[in-house]
Input
Amino acid sequence: MDVYNQVHSALARVLREGFPAQGVETELLDAWRSSKFLFDDDVPDYIDKLRKAVYDGQFYNSQARNNDDRRGEHVDKEHKKFQWLLKQFDPMHQMFAKHLKFNTGQN
Output
């Protein structure tokens, strides 16, 4: 459950703070390392996909700050990464639900 909480917390932080959310890549990397020993390949692969999306969003954010002629392109790409991450809470829960039993509060 710790890995799930790490990933959920990192994702929530990106969505709360936007790009750049300092240290989130490291949090996801730590979760990925732990997940390699605890889960089948689907979970670490998914966490790595999240980490790469965060990294890309951070990169596009830094490039957009240059205010050069490609700023609009970088802002659009950053926005697409953010929108994709925004939609990842349900898929993330489903990914972990295959391996963990979540207490839904129902008897």
About this structure: The longest helix spans residues 42-64. Residues 8 and 89 are 8 Å apart (CA to CA).
